[in-house]
Design a protein that fits this description.
Radius of gyration: 17 Å
Structural class: alpha+beta
CATH architecture of the largest domain: 2-Layer Sandwich
Number of domains: 2
Strand order of the largest sheet: 2-3-1-4
Strand content: 25-35%
Number of helices: 7
CATH class of the largest domain: Alpha Beta
Order of helices and strands: EHEEHEHHEHEEHEH
Shape: globular
């Protein structure tokens, strides 16, 4: 039986180079390589690590493995959210907001989640909508469109995590689209 070809995997790491936790990208690449990952590269200095993975690799087990490795190496927890290149491309291509809403917006972000939220969590999330902040959830991604700067919004990643009852990490849509163009399958 022929082994499956590797696919691009992207690990979105939470709390890398924020909150006093500074990790040089060279060190992050070296940690992944030491853990046995191949084709490792980073994309900007905000905890986006690209690597080759087996098409049969399971996200939750891979996320846990990376989190364990980073905890041992860095001494603190780093929530990890893995997507394949194809999943990243689909996330980047999803257009949940109207062109008019996009034109009025100041910020458009995607939060990566561990799993698709349950109905009660979605209800809690959607209760946070306001005239300034709108969102949509598709699978394991939360799309956040805001007419104010992120620092001016009453919402934050912490508010989303509380409503959804799970961790997440957020990236700007321009970063996600650039990554999807480069690594999407």
């Amino acid at each position: 039986m022929r082994a499956s070809s590797p696919v691009k995997g992207i690990a979105f790491l939470r709390a890398i180079n924020v909150g006093g936790h500074v990790v040089k990208m060279e060190k992050l690449r070296a940690l992944f390589e030491k853990a046995g990952f191949a084709g490792v590269e980073t994309f900007i200095a905000s905890g986006n690590v690209v690597f080759e993975m087996s098409a049969s690799a399971k996200g939750p087990a891979l996320e846990k493995s990376i989190e364990t490795m980073l905890l041992k190496a860095l001494g603190y927890e780093v929530a990890t959210f893995v997507r394949t290149g194809a999943e990243l491309k689909a996330a980047a291509g999803h257009e949940p907001f109207s062109p008019a809403a996009l034109k009025k917006s100041v910020a458009f972000n995607i939060a990566f989640l561990r799993h698709a939220p349950e109905k009660g969590a979605l209800d809690a999330l959607y209760s946070l909508k306001s005239t300034a902040d709108n969102f949509d959830v598709r699978g394991r991604e939360l799309y956040w469109l805001s007419t104010v700067r992120q620092g001016e919004s009453k919402l934050s990643n912490a508010a989303f995590e509380k409503a959804l009852k799970q961790p997440s990490t957020m990236r700007g849509i321009s970063t996600i689209r650039k990554m999807a163009e480069r690594y999407g399958a």
